[in-house]
UniProtKB/TrEMBL annotation:
This is Annexin. Belongs to the annexin family. Residues 1-162 are annotated as: Disordered. Residues 1-15, 23-47, 66-123 have a biased composition (Pro residues). A pair of annexin repeats may form one binding site for calcium and phospholipid. It holds the Pfam family Annexin. GO terms for cellular component: cytoplasm; nucleus; plasma membrane; vesicle membrane. SMART domains: ANX.
């Protein structure tokens, strides 16, 4: 389903970042969706306090990077080695230097005499004698699902999202907020407004500081106190905030797979489109908390090729955000996508899953654009026709997240409120997950208004009430 006023999937968003009623001219390979987030500035100007209101809708983007047109010569970064002119022999590596890596897609070098033979088609490479497996929570060597193995990453890794990295000590005191929270829950009655005001406006590092400070000063557990003093969806939202993004994701995964049935939407929300660092942090925290491997629980709840799809995702072999968009690689991926879907009888599902699960957002955007240019069809249409069920939903999630993460998150928020009744579990988790980054949340609000021609705050007011409504509005940036 295409969005009115939104360019068909496979075309990059327009350079201005705001969606037009007529499709724009195609941009070059890898042009980002609103560069830097052109719904609102990506970062507030220097000196603006955390949690301040974003600039009015439609303001000129702040610090949006300019992309060179496709085919223009790339300027090497400062200090990078100069490339030899075309036709010149490559420079000789100094004696003792490691051998250069073969280009992406080139056949692997021949194994030395006496090396073990490769495994069967589609099998992971054999582990050498005495080689130790990678520690749990760290990326293992890529496995060849369906004969496809992603390239080794030689680019700077994408840092973990805020709240997913190692614990940090920040130069900020949580004493006043910890005391305010205790006063709001002590004695007869509960001051819900203070709970919302204190918790809904903090970033993940501040929440962790408040949680630790509350325990240190009052010798009590903040999460347990909130559970005893509140209820309903207000309690669910406050607990999601107090746990922080990583712990909340881990609990959401466990609850989604606990008991009969699996809540596939939760698996999609938590695991798809994530960086390798975030995936590894989620796996490690899940194992620490529940003493079980996340891969084993996912494997036990999914089946067949959908299970293999999520095993690729959990392998954390996605191209880092710093990996470039190489036109020759994009062309190869486009041809492989076509040959796996429209170009044959039947569908090679794992090939498509492998490509969308191991490419970064810029590369996915370039693949979708090039596919439309080459075959005059949107990738979303192809996926809808060739797939069904949970795998279709998961592939569409990865495609849309790569094309425009702000518009995709806006659509997910609407999906949680559309139809008969509100999907409160999804609404709470999606609002809280987006609210951790205030500039990201502002861009999502701008995308929502552009897509649905209504204000997100007004839409939430129509679906919630009471303190639950106040918490959701505070999380999207409305004054408490």
């Amino acid at each position: 389903m295409s969005y009115p006023g939104y360019p068909p999937y496979g075309q990059p968003p327009p350079a201005g970042g705001y969606y037009q009623q007529t499709p724009p001219q195609p941009n070059p390979y890898g042009s980002p969706p609103p560069p830097g987030g052109q719904y609102y500035p990506q970062q507030p100007p220097a000196g603006q306090p955390y949690g301040a209101q974003p600039s009015p809708y439609g303001q000129q983007p702040y610090g949006a990077p300019q992309q060179p047109p496709y085919g223009a010569p790339q300027q090497p970064p400062y200090g990078a080695p100069q490339q030899p002119p075309y036709g010149a022999p490559p420079p000789q590596a100094p004696y003792g230097a490691p051998s250069p890596q073969p280009p992406y897609g080139a056949p692997p070098p021949a194994a030395p005499y006496g090396a073990p033979p490769p495994g069967p088609y589609g099998a992971p490479p054999s582990q050498g004698y005495g080689q130790q497996p990678a520690p749990y929570g760290q990326s293992a060597p890529p496995q060849q699902y369906g004969g496809y193995a992603p390239p080794a990453a030689n680019y700077p890794p994408t840092p973990p999202s805020l709240g997913y990295g190692p614990p940090q000590i920040i130069q900020w005191s949580g004493d006043a907020d910890a005391n305010a929270l205790r006063a709001a829950m002590k004695g007869f009655g509960t001051d819900e407004k203070t709970l919302i005001r204190v918790l809904a406006t903090k970033d993940p590092l501040q929440i962790a500081t408040i949680r630790d400070t509350y325990t240190r000063i009052h010798r009590r557990n903040l999460e347990a106190d909130i559970k005893s003093e509140t209820g309903g969806w207000l309690e669910k939202g406050l607990i999601a905030i107090v746990r922080g993004p990583l712990l909340h994701d881990v609990h959401m995964l466990h609850d989604a797979m606990d008991g009969p049935g699996t809540k596939e939407s939760v698996l999609n929300d938590v695991l798809l489109g994530r960086s390798n660092a975030d995936i590894n942090a989620i796996k490690s925290e899940y194992h620490r908390l529940f003493r079980r491997r996340l891969e084993d629980d996912v494997r036990g709840d999914l089946s067949m090729k959908t299970e293999r799809h999520f095993m690729i995702v959990l392998g954390a072999q996605r191209a880092e955000d710093s990996a470039p968009v190489v036109p020759a690689d994009i062309e190869r991926d486009v041809v492989e996508m076509y040959n796996a879907t429209e170009g044959k009888v039947g569908t090679d599902e794992i090939k498509v899953c492998s490509i969308l699960s191991t490419r970064n957002d810029n590369q996915i955007r370039a693949i979708a654009h090039a596919y439309r240019q080459k075959y005059a069809r949107n990738l979303e249409e192809v996926i809808r026709r060739e797939f069904s069920g949970h795998m279709e939903d998961a592939l569409l999630y990865q495609l849309r997240q790569g094309l425009d993460k702000y518009m995709h998150q806006a659509q997910l928020l609407e999906d949680a409120m559309a139809g008969m009744g509100t999907k409160d579990t999804l609404l709470v988790s999606r609002v809280v997950r987006n609210h951790w980054d205030r500039s990201h949340m502002a861009n999502v609000r701008g995308a929502y208004e552009k897509r649905f021609h209504k204000n997100l705050a007004s839409r939430i007011k129509g679906e919630t009430s009471g303190d639950y409504e106040k918490l959701m509005l505070a999380c999207i940036g409305e004054p408490v």
